[in-house]
Amino acid sequence: xxxxxxxxxxxxxxxxxxxxxxxxxxxxxxxxxxxxxxxxxxxxxxxxxxxxxxxxxxxxxxxxxxxxxxxxxxxxxxxxxxxxxxxxxxxxxxxxxxxxxx
Length: 102
What we know:
Strand content: 25-35%
Shape: globular
Oligomer: single chain
Structural class: alpha+beta
Number of domains: 1
Distance between the termini: 19 Å
């Protein structure tokens, strides 16, 4: 897990959750929610009041997870990886308190 200042200049959120990954065998146990809360506390302690993250658009289980935690979609982009176009969706929390209360 990694989080910190926003890296996407086109998004109007000061904080960003840069990466969070859980192996499928440990999903659905509350660990993801705990990690998201740790990131939200860290961002808030660092002076951020809001945050975003990027998820692969095809990863619907991740998108559903973030939406369940109170995020809303705020943008899309794509990039090329080994000749394949990868679509990403930006999700955000206007107030980290929403994430922390989930």
